[in-house]
């Protein structure tokens, strides 16, 4: 089983944003040492508790401080940007860090309506135009516009020896079909979806059209997981993330991820308890043996080529330890 890391660069209650970003770099280094295949960092805008608004900036820093692990965006939110600029940025990264760069593409706003308006005009229209934006981006990455196209003489320079690998991220049949039609590998966000992921991934495989003759379909499933030395420790660690998620839904949680003690002291209403239980069911939480069993079951159910793990804890040391315990048990 191949394992990878999705990092949202969370800010704990005692941290600054800079602290969180430094911890992200250290997580990438740890992931490389533990044998993880790739490290992706997400894009969020003006969301309290999440530090990374520009994955491309962090990737240049992380690439310079790692040696082998593949690094990428999870995701660049393409409706906010022109495909040409995105291609330039990731071609630049692929030139600096040869054969290590992934470019994950998403279509979520990544923040509030006000943030969306500040970032880009006509966002909803750009979402509807995502198939055309993806197609344009792929042509820039492949440097292969038809001779009669308006951009046929435009290159997203520098042109790297190994192009960045484009992935489409999503949680719906629509995103699966778009990935399949464009011959792109697909990453399904199990950790943020209530949809029938296995059916969605089967749709992707059934409709996959390779961009090049030797290409085959490829699937990552992303899951929220927390591993502890014991089941009880893992449940305690997870409570910080779960309570923080509930706080955010109420417009609270502005101070970042609460400590375990703060999470324990939080009084749940009946409605919040239901939400807590539902979120808990969508996570993998346990000791190393239990986590491995659940990851294997998830991989079998989805027929996934790779599992990507998102872990949020109050203590960065606990987060790295969780990834270490999983790697020792699985890899």
UniProtKB/TrEMBL annotation:
It holds the Pfam family Bac_luciferase. It comes from the Bacteria. The keyword Oxidoreductase applies. GO terms for molecular function: oxidoreductase activity. Keywords: Oxidoreductase. Coiled coil: none annotated. InterPro entries: Bact_Lucif_Oxidored, CmoO-like, Luciferase-like_dom, Luciferase-like_sf. Residues 1-299 form the Luciferase-like domain. Its EC number is 1.-.-.-. To bacterial alkanal monooxygenase alpha and beta chains. This is LLM class flavin-dependent oxidoreductase. It comes from Sporosarcina soli.
């Amino acid at each position: 089983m191949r394992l990878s890391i999705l990092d949202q660069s969370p800010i704990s209650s005692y941290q600054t944003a800079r602290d969180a970003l430094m911890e992200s770099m250290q997580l990438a280094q740890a992931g490389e040492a533990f044998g993880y295949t790739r490290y992706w960092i997400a894009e969020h805008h003006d969301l309290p508790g999440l530090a990374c608004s520009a994955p491309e900036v962090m990737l240049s820093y992380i690439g310079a401080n790692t040696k082998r692990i593949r690094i990428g965006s999870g995701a660049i939110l393409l409706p906010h940007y022109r495909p040409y600029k995105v291609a330039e940025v990731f071609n630049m990264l692929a030139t600096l860090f040869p054969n290590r760069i992934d470019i994950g593409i998403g279509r979520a706003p990544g923040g509030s309506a006000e943030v969306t308006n500040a970032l880009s005009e006509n966002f909803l229209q750009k979402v509807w135009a995502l198939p055309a934006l993806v197609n344009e981006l792929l042509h820039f990455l492949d440097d292969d516009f038809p001779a009669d196209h308006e951009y046929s003489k435009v290159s997203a320079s520098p042109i790297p020896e190994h192009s960045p690998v484009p992935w489409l991220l999503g949680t719906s049949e629509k995103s699966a079909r778009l990935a399949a039609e464009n011959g792109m590998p697909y990453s399904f966000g199990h950790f943020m979806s209530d949809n029938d992921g296995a059916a969605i991934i089967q749709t992707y495989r059934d409709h996959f059209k390779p961009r090049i003759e030797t290409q085959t379909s490829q699937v990552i499933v992303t899951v929220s997981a927390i591993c502890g030395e014991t089941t009880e420790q893992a449940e305690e660690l997870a409570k910080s993330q779960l309570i923080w998620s509930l706080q955010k839904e109420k417009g609270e949680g502005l101070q970042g991820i609460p400590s375990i003690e703060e999470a324990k002291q939080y009084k749940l209403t009946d409605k919040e308890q239901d939400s807590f239980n539902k979120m808990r069911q969508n996570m993998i939480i346990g000791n190393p043996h239990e986590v491995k069993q659940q990851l294997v079951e998830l991989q079998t159910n989805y027929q996934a080529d790779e599992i990507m793990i998102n872990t949020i804890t109050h203590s960065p040391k606990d987060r790295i330890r969780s990834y270490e315990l999983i790697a020792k048990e699985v890899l």
